[in-house]
C-alpha cells in the first residue's frame, strides 16, 4: 500500500502550479476538496484506453480531488485547459485524511475510471491481486476494495445525479476568479 498526497509536490513535470484545498460541510458533500492547477508542465501525459487516447496533463490543465468523509475512495476529476472534464478517476483506498505532509490517501491499487462518454472501466485489478499474494494487503482489505467498487458502480447505475455536476461546482469554488 502506498500513501499518496493531493498536492503532488514531488511531480517534477509541473514547472508552475497553483494548489488550493478546502474542507466543506454542505448538504451534498462533506470532506476535503483540493485543486491542482498545472500552469506550465515539462511535458504532457496521455493514457490509452482501448482505441482511445486521453490527455490528462498539459499546460492549463487542472485536477480536482474530492475526499468524501467516511468513504473508502478518492475522486480525481481531470479538466483540460478549457475547463472540460476529460476523465474522472476513483482511487479505492484504505483511508484518507490529513497528516503533517498534507491531505493523503492510502491507495489500495484498485481504480475506477469514468469517461465523458459514460464508459466505466475498472483498472489495476492485477495490482490488487499481486498485493494480496505478496502479503502487502490483507484479505479483508482486498475484499473491501471490491465491495467499494461494487458500491460505486451501483451508485452510478442508479443515481439521478449527472456525473461531474458536483465536480464542476467544486472546481469553480476553488478557482482563482
From TrEMBL:
SUPFAM superfamilies: FomD-like
Coiled coil, from the record: none
Top-level lineage group: Bacteria
A Pfam short name: DUF402
InterPro entries xrefs: DUF402, FomD-like_sf
Span of the signal peptide: none
Residue intervals of the DUF402 domain: 29-157
Protein name per UniProt: DUF402 domain-containing protein
